[in-house]
Design goal:
DNA binding, Aminotransferase_I/II_large, single chain, Arc Repressor Mutant, subunit A, alpha/beta, pyridoxal phosphate, globular, 7-stranded mixed beta sheet, 3-stranded antiparallel beta sheet, 15 helices, Aspartate Aminotransferase, domain 1, binds pyridoxal-5'-phosphate, pyridoxal phosphate binding
């Protein structure tokens, strides 16, 4: 196959950083090929990237040229690279033999989900299954549908009943909101991409937490952003002093933050930190885009008991008056990703502008799904109490199992969908590859970084049932023995 034109080059030093500790026992060429393959699958090595030459890569890694030559050959045979004399070796995604039948990622890319064996466990997707109430919500939505059938079905701002219900929920959380401040979107991902396209000019700086949500990194980059990462401390969702000084130095157009049960770390901004973020935004005239997709997924009360609605953090919008805070939210994690319903909360002028601009993208969101979300929001307390109970049990099986079996540092997140352990060694990439070989998919830390950091981290989601997690644990232990032994 002729190599596709390379869109970027990976320097030998960057390749070494990306892979971290890649040796996983067995022949070096096989471990190197596996680590490169896993990087492509995890999204940290973009397809159409030209890899370093065999000679330079060998020198940078401190291995023989025969090792890199054999690793590239193995990568080509697996369909993850193509080479031609003079053009070098370019990373690619293999062409599926049949049209892809796998579930598209609801979060991080589905790394090789189509190659997962029947008894495999996918801990790479932050996508809970639908709650039992979903079917009834659609049945009632169908009953409400006739009232809308006499019109064209396009509601670029969203169905009024849904805008009102979303506004009410913000008001309940302390941020007084009117329906005119709500734009219903086709998922939070669409909301982020729409805002990025609307607000950013090419090469403008956007400040992000490092790590952060992988598809936000992609959407912001696609909107032209030059990303400036603010490294998160181990025990806080944001270093607010560093955040403020970064705003002062970089004068970005936008800052993208996940304030609650952050993806991937699970950490949440304190009330004082939220206040400091709003103050910095106002001081430096920067719009802060708060992604509240995970906000409803509080799992613990402060005393460690199961969370109730009272433990859902207040909105990053505070009392709702700051013109510098725009938030996005979603029905995907509280209810179900298959709904494809999200929203933006912003000034009514911004909402009107976005409603116009979405004309070139999707025009409007699906109407029946919006009506189903109206129903689910009306039953929110009941749906969420079931959801929180199962996520809490799954989180505890995963965290307790990892803590008991592995020498890692495994924080127990107070909410959200993922665990972000420190492996205490830069083995994230190698571990993810070894876990995939054991039939368990996890994401290596650098997947979530605009700075290629997080070599010592992996993200494991707890959206699968406890029986699946229990089946995954011994395999994760075997994978760790392979890479650390
Ligand atoms: C932080 C965050 N924002 C946005 C999304 C995407 O949400 P949606 O399904 O509403 O597009 C996700 C999904 O994983 C997420 O974790």
């Amino acid at each position: 196959m002729t190599p596709p034109p390379a869109q970027r080059d990976l320097s030998p030093a960057a390749a070494v950083r990306l892979l971290g500790a890649w040796r996983a026992g067995g022949p070096a060429y096989a471990a190197l090929a596996d680590a490169l393959r896993q990087s492509v699958l995890a999204g940290s090595l973009a397809p159409h990237t030209r890899l370093p030459s065999e000679r330079e890569f060998a020198a940078a890694l401190g291995v023989s040229r025969a090792t890199t030559t054999a690793a590239y050959r193995r990568l080509r045979e697996a369909g993850f690279a193509v080479s031609r004399t003079g053009s070098g070796t370019v990373a690619v995604l293999p062409r599926p033999a049949t049209p892809a039948a796998s579930e598209p990622g609801g979060d991080a890319p589905a790394p090789g989900a189509e190659t997962l064996p029947d008894d495999g466990v996918d801990l790479s997707q932050a996508t809970p299954p639908a709650p039992p109430e979903l079917h009834g919500a659609f049945a009632r939505a169908l009953e409400a549908l006739p009232a809308y059938l006499g019109r064209g079905g396009y509601e670029p701002f969203g169905v009024p009943a849904l805008r009102a219900a979303i506004a009410d929920r913000y008001t309940e959380r302390g941020a007084a909101t009117s329906p005119e401040q709500i734009l219903v979107t086709t998922g939070a991902q669409h909301a982020i991409a729409l805002l990025a396209g609307s607000l950013l000019r090419p090469r403008e700086a956007v400040v992000v937490q490092d790590p952060t949500y992988v598809h936000a990194i992609e959407a912001l980059r696609r909107g032209g952003a030059r990303l400036v990462g603010v490294p998160c401390p181990a025990d806080a969702a944001l270093d607010v002093e560093l955040f403020a000084s970064t705003l002062r130095r970089s004068r970005p157009r936008l800052a993208y933050l996940i304030p609650d049960f952050h993806n991937p770390t699970g950490l949440t901004l304190t009330a004082a930190e939220r206040q400091a973020v709003r103050a910095a935004a106002e001081r430096y005239g920067v719009t802060v885009l708060g992604d509240e997709t995970l906000s409803e997924l509080a799992l613990d009360a402060p005393d460690g008991a199961p969370a109730s609605d009272a433990d859902v953090p207040p909105s990053l919008a505070g009392d709702g008056t700051s013109p510098y805070v725009v938030t996005v939210g979603s029905a995907s994690k509280a209810f179900w990703g298959g709904l494809r319903i999200g929203w933006v909360r912003a000034h009514p002028d911004v909402v009107a502008r976005l409603a116009r601009e979405r004309g070139s993208l999707d025009i409007a969101s699906p109407l029946l799904d919006q009506l189903a979300v109206v129903e689910l929001l009306a039953q929110r307390a009941e749906v969420l109490s079931g959801r929180r109970a199962s996520l809490r049990a799954q989180r505890d099986v995963l965290v307790d199992g990892l803590r008991a079996a592995l020498p890692w540092d495994v924080p127990r997140p107070a909410g959200g969908l993922s665990v972000w352990p420190s492996l205490r060694a830069p083995l994230g990439q190698a571990f993810a590859a070894a876990a995939a070989a054991e039939g368990v998919l996890v994401n290596a830390g650098p997947t979530f970084s605009a700075l290629a950091s997080g070599a010592d981290r992996v993200r494991l989601t707890f959206t699968r049932p406890t029986a699946d997690l229990e089946r995954a644990l011994p395999r994760l232990v075997r994978a760790w023995e392979r890479v650390s032994g």
